[in-house]
Amino acid sequence: MHISDGVLPTTISLAAYAATALGAGLSLKRIRQEDLPKIAVVTSSFFVASLIHLPLGPTSVHLLMPGIVGALLGSAAFLSIAVGLFLQSILFQFGGLTALGANAIMMGLPALFCGFLFQAIRGTTLLRNTIAGALAGGLGILLAAALLAAFLYTSGEDFIGVAKLALAAHIPVILIEAAVSAFTVSFIFRVKPELLHSVLR
Predict the structure, then answer these.
(1) Is there a contact between 144 and 1 (Cβ–Cβ < 8 Å)?
(2) CA 93 to CA 97: how far, in whole Å?
(3) What is the pLDDT of residues 74-83, one digit of tens each?
């Protein structure tokens, strides 16, 4: 779900970069030193998981993980995703540096929203946490796909078809990420539930 260089209008790319800089700065301001190991592990997981692409016509699908990243990191999720996307861009040419701001917005905002949603509804039982994890995982993909379609729409009529295909292609990803996030949250809840208290202050 990476947007490549040259796809978005320059004004949209610049505006997305400005919004990303603001989001990353706010995330960085809220991070505590004791949270750094957790952030590093989650960022590494996001980096690796979203490297595996399945081509589908003019687009591709892969695990995105904004929901689970948000659930685990809360306000630090935006910075985590921005760093992961930056490394993917410079090391593997996924996305592109000019589109980095838009890609960070596309995955970072859903991560933040899902993180706050997860904390609001997860409760104290295994079942509640598992359901909250599934909702965060699935909703994160739905929101990211919607933002992708919105960004592509700004690129002109040539990309409207691609936007529709991208939305349809991510329907199975929504279900997969919901299941993966539910399993991850339920496992963490059983072995180390304190990790589900996100990086919030």
Answers:
(1) yes
(2) 9
(3) 989 999 999 9
Q: Cβ contacts of residue 98 below 8 Å, gap of 6+?
A: 5, 6, 8, 13
Among 109, 156, 125, CA closest to 12: 156
158-186 pLDDT, tens digit per residue, is 666 766 777 777 788 889 899 999 999 99
Q: How far apart are CA 119 and CA 76, in angstroms?
A: 14
What are the respective helix, strand and coil percentages of the chain, to the nearest 5?
A: 75, 5, 20
Between CA 130 and CA 125 the distance in angstroms is: 9
Tokens 């695990």 -> residue: 63
Q: Is 32 exposed, middle or buried (0-12, 13-18, 19+ CB in 10 A)?
A: exposed
**CATH architecture label of 10-196:** Orthogonal Bundle (1.10)
User: What is the three-class DSSP state of 31?
Assistant: coil
